SRPBCC domain-containing protein
Amino acid sequence: MDDKVKFELEFVIQSSPQLLYQYLSTPSGLSEWFADNVNSRGELFSFIWDGSEEVAKLIKRKTDEFVKFAWEENDDGSYFEMKIIVDEITSDVSLFITDFAEEDEVEEAKMLWENQVASLKQVLGSK
């Protein structure tokens, strides 16, 4: 993981943690905003974009809190995680993304996440 840089993004989402979790953890939910199509066989999730397929393993999850995936072709320890954070005072729900990218691709990766989360918000009817 020497050449990859970890980055984190936070998005406020107007949704219940339970509903949001369904869109982060199920093939049908992920197909609505993250990829053109998503299939799963146990812990393996196939993400399909424009006809190309990427496979990620679901490493860890906690219901209504987070999911953590690692792309199968990566053996560098990198992963991507989508965590639901609820503010104790305001009850605002945030989606906290942790991902890795090559140093010269971090800005592009952040923009990709911003676009994906914009699609998620649209699906959820969130602003």
Notes: The mean pLDDT is 94. The helical segments are 17-25, 27-33, 106-124. The chain is about 30% helix and 45% strand. The chain has one domain: 4-124.
